[in-house]
């Protein structure tokens, strides 16, 4: 299964029985814990919930996130429609997303061309991963996290109960969640330069208001009382997990952070055991998969573009390495020039030859047509960067690592 190619949803559904994806979980909370173990809740997805292999490909973080997002939406649908079908689930999810953006010019409008419901949903899920990264859209800040994608699940759950309230619900829950995280961030005694930068950008947004007065945090916490109407709500657990994630960066908890989390526990009607469980889950995940998990990470737009482009090109190279290697074998001069480029600077004439021959190769492999688009040649240096790994080892003897 290739989550970056069309029809991956149908392939995913064909790989598993409904019992594996849905019926093996007793309730939403059990599924939430399984989802947390994949890293989806933390915005650092490292696996998917099904234990059976999805194929031979090595998936990117974004692809794993996309699979988990669809799987969770699917599970949520069947919680309220036990006798529904996969087709019904896909149509319901599509209706939900279209309702959420009704009357607005957004990424959904670009999918107006007639196509199958599953293909339309694939485009929407891909767009959601890109859209959720930038929360403060009026500024040049990028919050590189997919953790807030779980808001889609909570909103879909609400939509199934009361479609008319979903927009207000989503807007209020997003504001509540982010404000709770930023109050947690502000409570940190020692702030990094990025912490301060994030707070500054947050303050500059008219959508969120931070009250620095002595009772500001208490007033905000009181506003969360509406969540206690459901003692076992996933909204409360999600907010607690994200607030724990916010203080996790320095791996320590000072007095002020501890006090705020204690106040949050009281407000959400949670126990010390609940807090300890949330922190332990985060600690275990971090120790097993990665040392650095951040809810918020600032990235300059240019740096972010290069990072995303680099990841895209690398993925294309890995997915098409056999075909690229075959084309390189048939381009003797190109291989020689690329080999020379690892030990010396090429002349202008040689660089032009490399560019022309690389574009010829891109024409022969459909997945690489991105390089033929206007401005696509700007990505060629990235292509050259990763191609040497496909060259014979003799060309790399003098590479300086």
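-> sequence recovered:
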């Amino acid at each position: 299964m290739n989550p970056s190619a069309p029809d991956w949803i149908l392939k995913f559904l064909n790989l598993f029985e409904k019992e594996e994806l849905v019926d093996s979980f007793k309730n939403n909370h059990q599924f939430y814990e399984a989802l947390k173990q994949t890293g989806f809740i933390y915005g650092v997805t490292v696996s998917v919930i099904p234990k059976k292999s999805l194929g031979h490909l090595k998936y990117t973080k974004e692809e794993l996130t996309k699979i988990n997002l669809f799987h969770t939406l699917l599970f949520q649908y069947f919680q309220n429609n036990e006798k529904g079908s996969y087709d019904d689930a896909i149509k319901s999810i599509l209706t939900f997303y279209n309702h959420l953006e009704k009357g607005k010019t957004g990424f959904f409008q670009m999918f107006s061309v007639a196509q199958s419901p599953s293909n339309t949903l694939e485009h929407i899920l891909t767009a959601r991963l890109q859209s959720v990264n930038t929360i403060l859209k009026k500024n040049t800040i990028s919050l590189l996290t997919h953790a807030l994608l779980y808001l889609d699940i909570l909103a879909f759950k609400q939509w199934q109960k009361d479609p008319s309230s979903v927009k207000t619900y989503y807007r209020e829950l997003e504001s509540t969640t982010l404000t709770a995280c930023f109050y947690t961030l502000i409570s940190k005694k020692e702030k990094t330069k990025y912490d301060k930068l994030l707070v500054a950008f947050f303050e500059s947004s008219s959508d969120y208001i931070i009250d620095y007065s002595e009772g500001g945090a208490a007033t905000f916490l009181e506003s969360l009382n509406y969540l206690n109407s459901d003692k076992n709500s996933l909204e409360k657990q999600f907010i607690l997990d994200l607030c724990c994630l916010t203080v996790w960066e320095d791996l320590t908890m000072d007095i002020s952070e501890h006090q705020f989390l204690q106040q949050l526990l009281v407000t959400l009607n949670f126990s010390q055991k609940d807090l300890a469980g949330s922190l332990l889950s985060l600690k275990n995940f971090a120790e097993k998969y990665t040392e650095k998990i951040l809810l918020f990470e600032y990235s300059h737009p240019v740096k972010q573009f290069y990072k995303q482009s680099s990841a895209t090109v690398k993925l294309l190279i890995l997915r098409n390495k056999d075909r690229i290697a075959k084309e390189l074998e048939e381009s003797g001069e190109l291989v020689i020039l690329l080999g020379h480029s690892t030990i010396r600077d090429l002349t202008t004439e040689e660089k032009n030859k490399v560019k022309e021959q690389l574009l010829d190769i891109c024409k022969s492999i459909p997945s690489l047509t991105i390089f033929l688009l206007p401005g696509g040649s700007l990505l060629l240096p990235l292509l050259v960067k990763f191609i040497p790994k496909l060259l014979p080892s003799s060309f790399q003897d003098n590479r300086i690592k």
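Confidence is low (pLDDT under 50) at residues 102-107, 135-144, 298-306, 391-401.
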